[in-house]
Amino acid sequence: MCIEIEQMILDYSIQCNTKIDIEVFYDGKELLNYIENKHYFDLIFLDIELKSTTGIEVGTNIRNKLDDYISKIVFISSKSGYERQLFDVQPFNFMDKPIDKDKLVKCIHLALKLLDKEKKIFKYKVGHEFKQIAIQDILYFESKLRKVKITTLNGTDEFYGTLENIKTQLPNSFVTTHVSYVVNYNYIEKISAETILMINGVTIPISKRNLKDIHQLQIQFIKELRDVNL
């Protein structure tokens, strides 16, 4: 199965003239050790039925133990019924065995499309110092009087600005939830009628007028994933 998937990815790489680096692992613990040693993957195809552990356990460790909420994980299985268990791992997609090449290609294409959006840079100024950060690392912005607090995967910072101007630099994955907040949809853990829970445990309010925009963004993401599954 690993060889088959690797060949499909290589064929896609040649056909689209896109350089793709591939690593193959036959054991979940080997994958975890590799990531723990400062390696990173944009996209992981992860079999649920492994020998020494399960793909769900491996995915959970990637998210929680290794604190990696960026890598996109596509789970592979010959069985159904894993949906509830996979919810907390935030899967990018799910593929049945035997692997459908067209679906795999669509999955890679969508991942590359999203990665292209996520790898942009956000620039801002603190005093006389100019700073920049990868947009994919930003969780949310919070307006505090004339200042804006930016919360990222690595901490927080503050600078003078307005959310209105900031949002013009951001991709569509960022949504206004409240007059004082703009959040990265990719780092939302849970959405309720009045609040959003981010992956860092912070609860952010939702205003009624912005709830519709959030639901539309949900529909857009679901549609993109559905297109991959067709």
What is the arithmetic mean of pLDDT? 86
Kindly provide the radius of gyration, computed on alpha-carbon positions and rounded to a whole number of angstroms. Answer: 19 Å
Low-confidence spans: none
Helix % is: 25-40%
Shape: globular
Task: Provide the CATH architecture of the largest domain.
Answer: 3-Layer(aba) Sandwich
User: Biggest β-sheet: count, sense, barrel?
Assistant: 5 strands, antiparallel
- Cα-to-Cα separation, first versus last residue: 22 Å
Name its key features:
Rossmann fold, OB fold (Dihydrolipoamide Acetyltransferase, E2P), 2 domains, 5-stranded antiparallel beta sheet
Write up what this structure looks like:
The protein is α+β, with helices and mostly antiparallel strands and 230 residues long. It folds into two domains: 2-118, Response regulator (Rossmann fold), CATH 3.40.50; 121-226, OB fold (Dihydrolipoamide Acetyltransferase, E2P). Helices cover 37% and strands 29% of the residues. It contains seven helices and 13 strands. It has helices at 2-16, 28-36, 55-65, 83-86, 101-118, 163-167, 208-229; strands at 43-47, 72-77, 93-96, 121-126, 129-134, 138-144, 147-152, 155-160, 174-178, 181-184, 188-191, 195-198, 203-205. Strands 8-7-6-10-9 form a five-stranded antiparallel β-sheet. It is globular, with a radius of gyration of 19 Å.
